[in-house]
Structure formats: structure tokens, C-alpha cells
Design a protein that fits this description.
Layout: H1 3-28, H2 34-44, H3 47-73
Length: 78
């Protein structure tokens, strides 16, 4: 996997998460019972830290891949 591909995938994940949050905000205007709160608490809220952790890890991995690509492009230079 190339660095650019990893960046594109992490951007897609970020945008999908933002769209999910926006869609949920619209949904909450009409769905206001205990089941809605349960859904938010047990399914949506736990996603926030997981998505952040995944995006942070992807960014770190992206940096490693970029460094490896640079090193491979210019062998023998440290």
C-alpha cells in the first residue's frame, strides 16, 4: 500500500464519520425516546474515540511509510 492510498482511506473514514454524526443529529430531531438514547450511548458514542484512535494510528503509519519510501528512493544515505 502506498502512502497516498492510506491517506485517501483515512480521509474517507473521517468524512464517513462526520456524515454519520450529521445524519444522527438530524435523526435525533424526530427520534426522541429511550431507544434513541440507548442507540446513541451504546453504538454511536463509542465510535468517536475509536475513529480518533484509528486516524491517529493511520497518520503515524503514514509517516513511517513516507520515511521508508524516501529511504528506498535514496539508498545509502542515512
Amino acid at each position: 500500500m502506498r502512502v497516498a492510498e492510506l491517506s485517501v482511506d483515512s480521509t474517507k473514514l473521517y468524512k464517513a464519520h462526520v456524515e454519520l454524526i450529521q445524519a444522527w443529529e438530524l435523526t435525533k430531531e424526530h427520534w426522541k425516546d429511550d431507544n434513541a438514547q440507548h442507540f446513541e450511548d451504546n453504538h454511536l458514542t463509542p465510535l468517536d474515540p475509536l475513529v480518533k484512535m484509528l486516524l491517529d494510528a493511520t497518520n503515524r503509519l503514514n509517516e513511517v511509510f513516507a520515511r521508508v519510501e524516501r529511504e528506498l528512493a535514496s539508498p545509502g544515505q542515512d
